[in-house]
Amino acid sequence: MSASGLSGSGSTLGGAGGGGGGGGDTTVTRGTIDVWLHVITAADGSGNVTDTMIADQMDVLNDAFASTGWSFNLVATTRSNNDSWYTMTPGSPAETQAKAALRVGTADDLNIYLANIGGGLLGWATFPSNYTSAPSRDGVVVLSASLPGGNAAPYNLGDTATHEIGHWMGLYHTFQGGCSKSGDYVADTAAERSAAYGCPVGRDSCAGGDVDPIVNFMDYTDDFCMYKFTGNQDERMDAMFSAYRYLK
User: Fold this and answer.
1) Tens digit of each residue's pLDDT (9 = 90 or more) over 112-122
2) Catalytic residue among 95, 164, 192, 235
């Protein structure tokens, strides 16, 4: 945290421009975000994840976001046995019920829900601008098997959570908008016609630009292929967090 650090609700944050509370025009550029991690298993307890897997996941997140100045502090882990919640899908009554029962904190606190989510999905997240209209739905849902040591290879090194938290911090996919100039609203990610899978080194799907950003955490490549947020993505996360999450 910088010397001009600001203390948000549940999060220790570093401010740019020094001091002042209550949000306003303050832009926070770094900080430690408190995390509540909710492990949801089947009623018989199947689908559980170990404390070691959770610790490894937190290490992955902190390594991934280190260049941005953001880090994550695991405050508590809850464990719930519920068949309906265990196979939740986006927008389902099960998701609504699970989050209503488990969510902790305010806009600048991160709740991660681990479950055997349905629909063949690896995860989903709410965006910062969603919070005001639906605070109880805020957070990130991740397939339990995508944690480090899980069995969702090649997506089992922990970067599903990295990707979804990128959304929670305000980032779009690198392939957002295809080859259009607006795309993901980030200037230093090359335009990309569609999602990349595997690790297609040298892929260039949009004429006249750089090769596709397949190593970016906001693409769909295999976990081992992803290792990067760009400087402008960092700036966008700072701006979105400041506008919609800080002290909200």
Assistant:
1) 999 999 889 99
2) 164
